[in-house]
Design brief:
mainly alpha, single chain, 8 helices, three-stranded parallel beta sheet
């Protein structure tokens, strides 16, 4: 449970690279990652009930990824499901034919991640966890205003906006840098 929580709450973006079977906790790990890409032949199953136990530790992450209705089917039956079904349900963001395409797809995602402010990404992950499932009310709106205010007033926010206005690439600050 602590490992799943740590993976889910990690400040850095996480990517699940799925090739072959992902059963039980493997499905939970995929669900706990921010982004998931798999090959067409990837196979999934929540098999715990076959052993007389529950997928309890992975349930919050799987439920958030595929929804209650799909959890009812796949947690209760322990049946296997394909990469296409995992994609349809939202467990996978993308499916590709094979290992080479998987490497290419992951490489493209990493390239896109590296273009962005690392502190903004960490704060974005926190924001998503904070407002997911919340009603759009005054409290939620207030929290989003506070979040954007902190981001805009940060060194990274200033650099990002300045780079945009000057039509140049941002020079992201690394942790511990003095400028």
């Amino acid at each position: 449970a602590q490992m799943m929580s740590a993976l889910y709450e990690l400040s850095k973006p996480t990517i699940a690279r799925v090739q072959g079977p992902a059963f039980g906790v493997g499905v939970g790990i995929v669900a706990a990652c921010d982004i998931a890409v798999g090959t067409y032949d990837a196979l999934f199953a929540l098999t715990e009930v076959r052993f007389g136990i529950l997928p309890a530790v992975v349930s919050p992450y799987v439920l958030a990824a595929i929804g209650e209705r799909n959890c009812r089917r796949y947690m209760l039956t322990a049946e296997r499901f394909s990469a296409a079904e995992a994609y349809r349900m939202g467990l996978l963001h993308e499916i590709v034919p094979g290992e080479e395409q998987l490497d290419d797809a992951i490489g493209e995602i990493i390239d896109n991640l590296l273009k962005n402010g690392p502190h903004a990404q960490a704060e974005c992950k926190t924001l998503i966890r904070l407002i997911a499932g919340q009603p759009i009310d005054d409290s939620t709106i207030g929290e989003t205003i506070r979040c954007i205010g902190r981001a805009r007033s940060s060194a990274e926010g200033h650099e990002g906006m300045q780079a945009f206005l000057e039509k140049r690439r941002p020079n992201w600050l690394t942790p511990g840098s003095s400028t």
